[in-house]
Design brief:
This protein is mostly helical. The chain is built from seven helices and five strands. Strand 2, helix 4 and strand 3 form a beta-alpha-beta unit. The protein is globular and about 60 Å long.
Amino acid sequence: MAAKSGQKNRIDVLMDEASVALAEGRYFDAERVANVALGGAEQVSDYERMARILLPLQEARRQKRLAAIDTGRLTCLSDVQHDEVVLEAGCYLLEPMMVAAHGRDLRLRANEEKVPVLVVVREPKTQMGLWPICMIGPKTVRARVAPPAKGADDEPEPTIEWMVSASEALGNEAFAMVDPDGEAATRVKQISEVLSTCNEHEKLHQWLAEACREAAQLVPANSNSSR
């Protein structure tokens, strides 16, 4: 019991650190600390704290995404490894022959270097002419979306608006992987996994917070006596 109480105290300290970093505009630090706090709360099934942590985590990620979008810069990569690219803030569309693993690694590198990016990975078009987009993490998430409108050369011409829409579609598809009839604690676990994959999707944070609040109401009262 004491160990669990100590863990919750540590989570509270991390939450305070994340809030301070967020207020100071240190969005990468805020995200990192809040994510550690979220993992700690999930480990001890503290759903109430999970719900509270998700708000600053969502805001930190939103600010990072907006910083990438607001650059107006869109870079398409197809035949180079991500570690050969000088990372600048902006949006990155990874095209064949690059794959979802490259997108994951590019995100990780951007976080390490504190460079705000929006990353979308597309696979070869389907027979129906759609563009599959994919991201991997604890789960593999894939969606099929309409390609961008064609440009002057009669080929699809990606835009930042299309990138944002594709990213949203991927997050929506991730949520569709969650069992809507599952127990609240099961849905918390499932949404947490897809959020770790599609962490730029704001509504996934909100849906996870809702599931956490529902799960918190079902936790026996004596399980929280150590707070």
